[in-house]
Amino acid sequence: MSSSGSQPSIFSRIIAREIPATIVAETEHIIAFLDIAPKAPVHVVVTTKDPQYQNVVELAAGNSALLAELVAVAEQIAAERTNGQFRLVFNTGAAAGQTVFHVHAHVMGSPELTDHLGEDSLGTL
């Protein structure tokens, strides 16, 4: 889990409305916004408002209900923006591409059913 006294993540600052973002969904516990460097025609970041979990493994172990809510919000976004066909990517650890250590998922897809996501939408390891 996050160490106390550390600086708030960029996601915490977005949640606090200190940094602008295009918010596409929000619940009491979850917020979703457009990725600033999209890797697919639809690329939305879905994160918890609780910064204590650094990655999906910690979240699953610590609060499975919150993980289920995060996935449900991701599914709702995908239904609205990608016709329900999407990738849901959790990067866990710096070597796997995680750059913000505040648990989050990437919803990636396309609004067109004929479009296919290439391997570059997964980023490089």
UniProtKB/TrEMBL annotation:
<feature type="active site" description="Tele-AMP-histidine intermediate">
    <location>
        <position position="104"/>
    </location>
</feature>
<dbReference type="Pfam" id="PF01230">
    <property type="entry name" value="HIT"/>
</dbReference>
<dbReference type="InterPro" id="IPR036265">
    <property type="entry name" value="HIT-like_sf"/>
</dbReference>
<feature type="domain" description="HIT">
    <location>
        <begin position="10"/>
        <end position="118"/>
    </location>
</feature>
<dbReference type="InterPro" id="IPR011146">
    <property type="entry name" value="HIT-like"/>
</dbReference>
<protein>
    <submittedName>
        <fullName>HIT domain-containing protein</fullName>
    </submittedName>
</protein>
<dbReference type="GO" id="GO:0003824">
    <property type="term" value="F:catalytic activity"/>
</dbReference>
<dbReference type="InterPro" id="IPR001310">
    <property type="entry name" value="Histidine_triad_HIT"/>
</dbReference>
<feature type="short sequence motif" description="Histidine triad motif">
    <location>
        <begin position="102"/>
        <end position="106"/>
    </location>
</feature>
